[in-house]
Amino acid sequence: MRHRTRTTTTGSGTPRRLRIRAGVAAAVTALASLVALIPEHPALGQTTPVTVRLGYFPNVTHAPALVAADQGIFAKNLGSNPLEIKTFNAGPEEVTALLSDALDIGYIGPNPAVNAYVQSGGEAVRVVSGAASGGAFLIAKPGIDKPADLKGKKVASPQLGNTQDVALRVWLKEHGLKTDTQGGGDVSILPQDNATALSAFSQGQIDAAWVIEPWATRLITEGGGHVLVDERDLWPDGRYATTNIIVRTEFLKEHPEVVKQVLQANIEAIAAIETNREAAETSVANQIQKITGKAIAAPLVRASFSTITFTEDPIPYSLQKSAKDAVSVGLLQPPKDLFKIYDLKLVNQLRKAAGDPAITVKAVKIPKASATTTPTTAAAGSTSTTTTAK
């Protein structure tokens, strides 16, 4: 896989101020220790400990969560607040947990976050931070070197309606290739979990897959594939949200200081990745093995890291553009005022303390689907009310 080295930046594109952040992190830790000494105040404005149910995936694009869990960063910042970790394979299942009040906070891709927002009428969830950008690729078999070569082929995505599934369908549509949600059309899209896709690719049962790291690198090293599309090439400056942090709105309103503790842990984990990459890679490998029961080779983690930028900037433009794309392929009704999905007050407070500029949100206009868009029903956690626009 071709890799490009990128410097993690703030929302304004300036390098992260690691020394300032280290000082701020130490100050926050000291303050948390002092607060913890007061029994009736486990967190500011909080009288009793709050259990935090946190979700994420065993993917390298969720490295900040994996590092924070492995290195005790979540535990340190949450203090007396217990942490319950729940893991998922793809965004739509995590959305189901959020909407059924089985999860409070989750690391998740843009499109499932949008689906949760739309399903709840814009009420149930808010995006409060970013975590990662990049790390998504379309990997293909040898001999498949251009879009037209995929006609009549089978291509996997992680799950119907998830971020990579939408990206795949839109990319094919832009190159004149038709698809549908039943696996028909010019290219047959077969949603399946990443482990199944790796096995199917290695056995010749599928011809390509749009996946995130570490699965993209594994499809190359274990399945003999090559990069057909690096998704960074499809976005301005190569920046697009792969992983954001989403919170149930009710939990955010009731426990803002607890949410802020999680966001501080996320920022500290990103700093840990930047300052000690080798230790972070080990933490990610440890956690992936713990969750999946299977070891992951250190070189694989290292190669995956080189394709991803870790940042608390949720890159709001890209989420809204992804939603616009989902509408264009019939997987989503046009959401109203999608920019309101963002509540960046807490992360901006932390950025201000670190001397970084605030992240701003600009609305992206999302038109109705064209009259030719085929109605579809997306997977669990995705919208199930899409209709043909008239």
Structural class from helices and strands?
A: alpha/beta
CATH superfamily of the largest domain: Periplasmic binding protein-like II
CATH topology of the largest domain: D-Maltodextrin-Binding Protein, domain 2
Q: Quaternary arrangement of the chains shown?
A: single chain
**Uncertain parts:** 2-20, 28-42, 371-390
Number of domains: 2
Overview in brief:
The chain is α/β, with parallel strands linked by helices. The chain has 14 helices and eleven strands.
Notes on the structure:
The structure is a single chain. This protein has 390 residues and is α/β, with parallel strands linked by helices. It has 2 domains: 18-132 and 239-353, D-Maltodextrin-Binding Protein, domain 2 (3-Layer(aba) Sandwich); 136-237, Periplasmic binding protein-like II (D-Maltodextrin-Binding Protein, domain 2), CATH 3.40.190.10. 39% of the residues lie in helices and 15% in strands. The protein is built from 14 helices and 11 strands. The strands form 2 sheets. A 6-stranded mixed beta sheet has the order 2-1-3-10-4-11, sandwiched between helices. Helix 1 crosses helix 10 and helix 2 (63-70) packs across helix 11 (277-292). The radius of gyration is 20 Å and the shape is globular. The termini are far apart. The relative contact order is 0.19. Residues 2-20, 28-42 and 371-390 have low confidence and may be disordered.
